[in-house]
Design brief:
Tetramer of two alpha and two beta chains. Pfam families: PALP. Pathway: Amino-acid biosynthesis; L-tryptophan biosynthesis; L-tryptophan from chorismate: step 5/5. The beta subunit is responsible for the synthesis of L-tryptophan from indole and L-serine. The chain is an alpha/beta fold. It folds into two domains: 153 residues, Rossmann fold (3-Layer(aba) Sandwich), CATH 3.40.50; 218 residues, Rossmann fold. Helices cover 45% and strands 17% of the residues. The chain has 16 helices and 14 strands. The protein has a six-stranded mixed β-sheet with strand order 3-4-14-9-10-13, sandwiched between helices. Strands 7-6-5-8 form a four-stranded parallel β-sheet, sandwiched between helices. Helix 10 packs across helix 11. The protein is globular, with a radius of gyration of 20 Å. It starts with a helix and ends with a helix. The structure holds pyridoxal-5'-phosphate (PLP).
């Protein structure tokens, strides 16, 4: 808001570009030691060069088409729309991508970049295993060694993903230190990375971390928005009134939003998890309840304690339980270009079941948050309005958990 004055000069598409230091307004940047900053600058330079080459763009586009199965369709959810009694609800089907979610879009971009930069190993941490599987897939495809660090507790909990990563040829490091969860996996992967950052590539799994990752991952995911911006008017004769996506780190939302940034009549809505309630450690609604701070190498809204340390977070959808959020989202929130709302576990489970039983589509619990917001608002928006939801992933991974939780 302190940047409101210089904002008036910016065109909507200029909102897409961070400045030379990787800031979107006051958010983002490179809050890392000088040695690491130099490496991040190298990656930014390589990316900006490679991005302009025909060979790289063509390779990525061909993979999107023939490997991922893009473009993903837009589907009118007729029965869900009828059940909600208001706005027409459409789904952008990222759940139909190879590996079942949007993450493959940036995993391929990062793996190709690592390969073009001559890196010898790709490193990543993973919580529930979704980012790990996507990176293991992309590394198998481009032929790069891949090492995934995962907390021992998550290794035990997320067995199908662990097995997949092994089959795909990734080296899996089970982290036995600390709380043996994602936080420790990050530390462990980072420690390995710092042994040889010139030759290793640390693949970040969302639009977070130091510059250039928020910009780069956003660019890779922007294929979602570019497709949707073409598909939706071709199918319905007009633009959607609302585009909606769940927000963990914020990559699938940024991907969809970026296609509609210049369409000021199109409202951009991000949906965060309010989990079990608003107590400490009960939710992960960073933009809704957090405040600006710095962690993990960048400045953004975050959930933090008095010492500025990240607070514990929780969501029924493990892909959404992150205590910060991509800096570009923080900027869009302050400018009022995007709005952010929170949806709790109960509404999420209800949306998960409704979409399954009315449309035969089992969504990821993450994506079900976006569906839940549309279901809640459909009547208020009215039958003339249309809502396009990014269905970021499929729910196979969540099926057993939900069935047990609901006693099915
Ligand atoms: C990881 C994940 C998310 C959350 O990540 P974003 O960066 O916020 O998109 C959402 N949906 C699915 C299916 C995921 O796997």
């Amino acid at each position: 808001m302190n940047s409101a004055n210089n904002q008036t000069k910016k065109t909507p598409s200029e909102l897409m570009l961070p400045d030379a230091n990787g800031f979107f307004g006051p958010y983002g940047g490179q809050a890392v030691p000088p040695h690491l900053k130099a490496i991040m600058d190298d990656i930014a330079k390589a990316y900006l060069e490679i991005r302009e080459t025909q060979a790289y763009q063509q390779e990525l586009m061909e993979l999107y088409q023939h490997y991922v199965g893009r473009p993903s369709p837009i589907y009118f959810a007729r029965r869900l729309t009828e059940a909600c009694g208001g706005a027409k609800i459409y789904l952008k089907r990222e759940d139909l991508n190879h590996t079942g979610a949007h993450k493959i879009n940036h995993a391929l971009g990062e793996a190709l970049l690592a390969k073009h930069m001559g890196k010898t190993k790709v490193l990543a941490e993973t919580g529930a295993g979704q980012h790990g599987v996507a990176m293991a897939t992309a590394c198998a495809l481009v032929g790069l060694p891949c090492e995934i660090h995962m907390g021992a507790i998550d290794v035990a909990k997320e067995h199908p993903n662990v097995t997949k990563m092994k089959i795909l040829g990734a080296r899996l490091i089970s982290v036995e230190t600390g709380t043996r969860t994602l936080k420790d996996a990050v530390d462990s992967a980072f420690e390995e990375y710092m042994k040889d950052p010139d030759n290793f590539f640390y693949a970040i799994g969302s639009v977070v971390g130091p510059h250039p990752f928020p910009m780069m991952v956003r660019d890779f995911q922007s294929i979602i928005g570019r497709e949707a911006r073409q598909q939706f008017p071709a199918q319905t004769g007009k633009l959607p009134d609302y585009v909606v996506a769940c927000v963990g780190g914020g990559s699938n939302a940024m991907g969809l939003f970026s296609g509609f940034m210049d369409d000021e009549a199109v409202k951009l809505v991000g949906v965060e998890p309010s989990g079990r309630g608003l107590g400490k450690g009960e939710h992960a609604a960073t933009l809704t309840y957090g405040k600006p701070g710095t962690m993990h190498g960048f400045h953004s809204y975050m959930l933090q304690d008095e010492q500025g340390e990240p607070e514990p977070v929780y969501s029924i959808a493990s892909g959404l339980d992150y205590p910060s959020v991509g800096p570009h989202h923080s900027y869009l929130k302050d400018l009022g270009r995007a709005e952010y709302h929170a949806v709790d576990d109960t509404a999420c489970l209800d949306a998960f079941m409704k979409l399954s039983r009315l449309e035969g589509i089992i969504p990821a619990l993450e994506s079900a948050h976006a569906v839940a917001w549309a279901m809640q608002e459909a009547r208020r928006l009215g039958p003339d309005a249309s809502v396009l939801i990014n269905l970021s992933g499929r729910g196979d991974k969540d099926a057993d958990f939900v069935a047990e939780k609901l006693g099915l």
